[in-house]
Description:
The structure holds 2 protein chains of 2 kinds. In chain A, strands 2, 4, 5, 9, 10 and 11 form a 6-stranded mixed beta sheet that branches. In chain A, strands 1-3-8-7-6 form a 5-stranded antiparallel beta sheet, with no helix packed on it. In chain A, a hairpin with a 5-residue loop joins strand 7 and strand 8. Chain A is about 0% helix and about 55% strand. Chain A is globular, with a radius of gyration of 13 Å. By secondary structure, chain A is an all-beta fold. Chain A has strands at about 5, 10-15, 20-25, 30-35, 45-50, 55-60, 60-65, 70-75, 85-90, 100, 105-110. Chain B has strands spanning about 5, 10-15, 20-25, 30-35, 45-50, 55, 65-70, 75-80, 90-95, 105, 110-115. The radius of gyration of chain B is 13 Å and the shape is globular. In chain B, the strands form 2 sheets. In chain B, strands 2, 4, 5, 6, 9, 10 and 11 form a 7-stranded mixed beta sheet that branches. A 4-stranded antiparallel beta sheet of chain B has the order 1-3-8-7, with no helix packed on it. Helix content of chain B is about 0%, strand content about 45%. In chain B, strand 7 and strand 8 (about 75-80) form a beta hairpin. The interface of A and B includes residues 42, 44 and 90 of A.
Amino acid sequence: TQLLEQSPQFLSIQEGENLTVYCNSSSVFSSLQWYRQEPGEGPVLLVTVVTGGEVKKLKRLTFQFGDARKDSSLHITAAQPGDTGLYLCAGKIGSNDYKLSFGAGTTVTVRA
Amino acid sequence: EAGVAQSPRYKIIEKRQSVAFWCNPISGHATLYWYQQILGQGPKLLIQFQNNGVVDDSQLPKDRFSAERLKGVDSTLKIQPAKLEDSAVYLCASSFRGAGGHNEQFFGPGTRLTVL
Lengths: 112, 116
């Protein structure tokens, strides 16, 4: 069983549309990271959120960490074909625990 | 700066055969991780090294999987004998520090293993 549940599993949208993907858990995380993984490549870190309620923006991407530090969302505004990829969330439990628990990911396809 | 290097990129073997994967982390990164990513799932940590010592191998199937990092730099992961369910992408990652903090893990491109 996955510690982190991601939804939806797949998302296909037209260029210019907005999208939101979710990452939920019953566990509290000391921090949570979002990665993007393209086919044939390893995951690449997009952002780390640490504080409950925190919102971080990275160009057209907006990341939010839930107040209780159990959930997170990633919102992409005006999606572009280059945003296509597998979006993974990964949580760290405890301040001294190095181990990342990954969700199963959301596969996003942005059609031109 | 060179990234994490892995080889081979692809490997096809028959069940019960042996296979080895190699990883060279980013220079200066003390911590090295091996992950298994089965299709449709997120990466699962198999083993973590801090320099040449094992920090965590609790999810490594030790009856068939082994890993070493002899000089605290590059690492090999071996499967012997392979089973059909070992088909997956094996990712290597490295980070500057290990436990504590929010150190970024840098991933290699992975080795895609197919067991027939």
